[in-house]
């Protein structure tokens, strides 16, 4: 892969933010739990959630990390409607290198989520481009809900 060093450095610091147009709502929590196969009653039963110290049902943890659930973004050519950096690396394919999630507090149906993504680093190593970004998720009160550190790897197509 032959990307100019200045082009790689220019990626660092890019930032985008998405704010949901409305609160998550109970249906989003219920549907996401169903989709991921998690029948924990904390996600669907307010009485159960209150009995365990929560003020209401809570969201499955990674729901807010999937911006396609609430950001209202248009679908891309592959049908995905969530966050993407849209980095075009000629002759390479994108491989997801992993995510490291930190959850700070429960998310409730009345929360309006803002996801702020920032590219923290971009470097070429061993013929691959590694892009690390950090997403912070906050609610309408500015309270930190979660952080997602994601690594994307662009691998040369032989």
From TrEMBL:
Per the database record, which ranges form the FAS1-like dehydratase domain?
Answer: 10-146
Q: One Pfam family, short name please?
A: FAS1_DH_region
- Determine the domain of life of the protein's source: Bacteria
Organism source for this protein? Streptosporangium minutum
Coiled coil located at which positions?
A: none
- Identify this protein by name: FAS1-like dehydratase domain-containing protein
Which InterPro entries does the UniProt entry name for this protein?
Answer: FAS1-like_DH_region (IPR039569), HadA-like (IPR016709), HotDog_dom_sf (IPR029069)
């Amino acid at each position: 892969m032959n990307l100019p060093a200045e082009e790689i450095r220019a990626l660092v610091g890019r930032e985008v933010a998405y704010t949901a147009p409305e609160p998550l709502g109970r249906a989003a929590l219920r549907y996401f739990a169903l989709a991921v196969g998690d029948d924990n009653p904390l996600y669907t039963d307010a009485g159960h959630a209150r009995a365990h110290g929560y003020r209401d049902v809570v969201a499955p943890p990674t729901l807010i990390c999937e911006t396609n659930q609430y950001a209202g973004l248009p679908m891309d050519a592959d049908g995905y409607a969530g966050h993407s950096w849209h980095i075009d690396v000629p002759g390479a394919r994108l491989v997801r290198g992993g995510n490291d999630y930190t959850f700070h507090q429960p998310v409730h149906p009345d929360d309006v989520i803002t996801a702020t993504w920032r590219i923290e680093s971009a470097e070429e190593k061993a013929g691959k481009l590694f892009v690390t970004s950090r997403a912070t998720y906050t609610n309408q009160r500015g309270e930190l809900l979660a952080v997602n550190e994601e690594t994307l790897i662009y691998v040369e197509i032989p």
